[in-house]
Amino acid sequence: MTVKNKVIVRILGQEYTIRSDESREFVQKVANLIDDKMRAIYEKNKKFSTSWIAVLTALNVGDDYLKLEQEKEQLLYRLENPEGELKTMKDCLIRLQNELKEKSEAHNSVESEFNKLVENTATYEHSLLELRKEVDRVCSELAQKDQMLQLAENKAESFEKSLKEKDVEIEMLRSKLAEAESERDASRLELSEFIETFDSSN
Q1: What pLDDT score does 29 carry?
Q2: Closest CA to 39 of 56, 27, 24, 25
Q3: Segments of 30-164 assigned E as strands
Q4: Are 6 and 20 in contact (CB under 8 A)?
């Protein structure tokens, strides 16, 4: 007859004596698990009785157990039906390959658009460089024309000043000419009077 292990455990503050064929460590591990679950329920609502907490803990443990059983059955089914699992994996692989193909095509399309953009950018930069050269050339020509215009304006200003000086000289010459003509007329008059006087005396 197998001797059962006697283990004293504490659950939710109360001690219990457990007899089991399992090792002390295993029994203590199970007790700790139940204690943790019961304390979690107790912390949420401290008005629950110990029996009600025990029922809720049992329901939670049962829920965990059934879920593990379902996972176990699924794993066993997959192990016992390798062809079905292989088909599933093949279908998944085909789906992934199709997704990869679509993404690859999309990537190629984006890369093509990017290359076009790079080419257009290079063309634009070249055109911009040529335009800048043309602008520099026009600015240089404008600067030269402005310089020539300034020189022309300076010459025109100098010519205008000289012209005014000539006008003053002309006015002075006209004044002198008028005086000379007046003196000439006076001399002619005196000469005429002298001749008349000379003729009368003869």
Answers
A1: 93
A2: 56
A3: none
A4: no
Q: Is 3 helix (H, G, I), strand (E, B) or coil?
A: coil
pLDDT of 1-15, one tens digit each?
Answer: 466 788 999 998 899
Using the predicted structure, report yes or no on whether residue 82 has a pLDDT greater than 70: no
The pairs formed by 175-179 with CB atoms below 8 angstroms and a separation of 24 or more are none
**Which amino acid belongs to residue 136?**
D
Strand partners of residue 17: 8
Burial class (CB in 10 A: 0-12, 13-18, 19+), 18: middle
Residue environment code for 165-190, b if the CB has 16+ CB neighbours within 10 A, otherwise e: eeeeeeeeeeeeeeeeeeeeeeeeee
Alpha carbon distance 10, 35 (integer Å) = 8
Q: What value does the mean pLDDT of the chain take?
A: 85
pLDDT attached to residue 34: 92
- Give per-residue pLDDT as tens, 122-142: 888 888 888 889 888 988 888
Rounded to two decimals, what is the model's pTM? 0.39
Whole-angstrom distance, CA of residue 53 vs CA of residue 36 = 12
Is the Cα dihedral 18, 24, 26, 32 positive or negative? positive
Cα angle for residues 87, 88, 91 (degrees, 5° grid): 85
User: How buried is 33 (Cβ within 10 angstroms: 0-12 exposed, 13-18 middle, 19+ buried)?
Assistant: middle
